[in-house]
Amino acid sequence: MHHSVKVNILNGWIGLLLCCLLISVGCGGSQARFDQGNRAYQEENFEEAARVYQALVDSGYTSPSLFYNLGNAYYRQKKVAPAIYNFEKALKLKPRDKYIRQNIEMAQRLIQPKADILPEFFYVRWWKTLFNLLPSTIWGILTILCFWATFYLLYQYFTKIAPKVRRRSFIGAILTGILAIFFLVLGWNKYYTETTEKHAIVFAETASLKSGPSPASKEVSIIGAGSKVFIIDTSDKWAKVRLTDNKEGWLPMTVIQTF
Fold first, then answer.
1. Which of 5, 74, 134, 186 is 20 to 30 Å from 90 by CA-CA measure?
2. Residue pLDDT, tens place only, 207-259
3. Which residues have CB under 8 Å from 16's CB, separation 6+?
4. Is 230 in contact with 208 (CB distance < 8 Å)?
5. Is 170 exposed, middle or buried (CB count within 10 Å of its CB: 0-12, 13-18, 19+)?
């Protein structure tokens, strides 16, 4: 009996070591391929660099650096749609990176024809910056902490006798309560965006935006490869989308790739 237990424990340790070895070998192999892509890019062999990076992505590897480098490799080949697509995927993983945003803006200048991008007011830019500062889980934790602080300060207010303590507790409860509601709104909106909002990039050279989910529907607009759209709804093989100029219409699912 004791011998059997020892054998099982030994087998377990051997299995764990083998798993660790396989993981380390896999990580080492992916890093080697990533470095190979980097060398190809530095040698201005952008097609080879894109091929290597894309193979890593197709194998299931994801990182902001990988998508960013892949986007650059496509951009240097003037392949606008895959460049923007990968820049957007990098930005989704690292939303505060200013270099990714700059590259998206540079690539968007190559889109022909393109939808107009409506100018944003300063408070919209401020809200988006704050919105992308943290994931929804952190906003949720901050909300809970602020609510707990509010309840504690209210407890202090109702149980203490000293007027100064009561006044400070009351003011603190109001401030932490406002912060809790603010964080709650941010967290809920961030969670909704993370779980339901879908974006896509147009990959067709030009795409006809239709008034309905049918090739026979009236044409609303023509948009070029690399254009970013927001998916509102889907119907069979069509997607209802909104453009950056707030125009809405339908596109075949075959001409877009979601991210």
1. 186
2. 999 999 999 999 999 999 999 999 999 998 999 999 988 899 999 999 999 99
3. none
4. no
5. middle
- Is 2-108 CATH 3.10.450.50? no
- Whether 2-108 and 198-258 share one fold: the answer is no
Of 103, 118, 146, 148, nearest to 230 by C-alpha is 118
Backbone angles phi, psi at 229, to 5 degrees: -130, 155
User: What does DSSP say about strands 206-210 and 219-224: parallel, antiparallel, or unpaired?
Assistant: antiparallel
| Dist CA 14 CA 12 (whole Å) | 5
The end-to-end CA distance of the chain, in Å, is 55
Whether pTM > 0.85 for this model: the answer is: no
- Full strand arrangement of the beta sheet holding 248-252: 219-224, 206-210, 248-252, 238-242, 228-235, 198-202, 256-258
Among residues 104, 106, 95, which one has the least CA distance to residue 135?
95
> Looking up tokens 């006798």, which residue turns up?
161
Measured from the Cβ of residue 118, the count of other Cβ atoms closer than 10 Å reads 10
CA angle 145, 148, 153 (to 5 degrees): 125
Distance CA 95, CA 106 (A): 17
Q: For helices 64-75 and 80-93, what crossing angle results, to 10°?
A: 160
List CB contacts of 229: < 8 A, sequence separation 6 or more: 199, 200, 201, 202, 223, 239, 241, 242, 243, 251, 256
CATH 2.30.30.40 is held by the domain 198-258:
yes
CB 249 within 8 A of CB 235: no
C-alpha distances (whole Å) from 162 to each of 62, 150, 171, 223 are: 58, 19, 15, 68
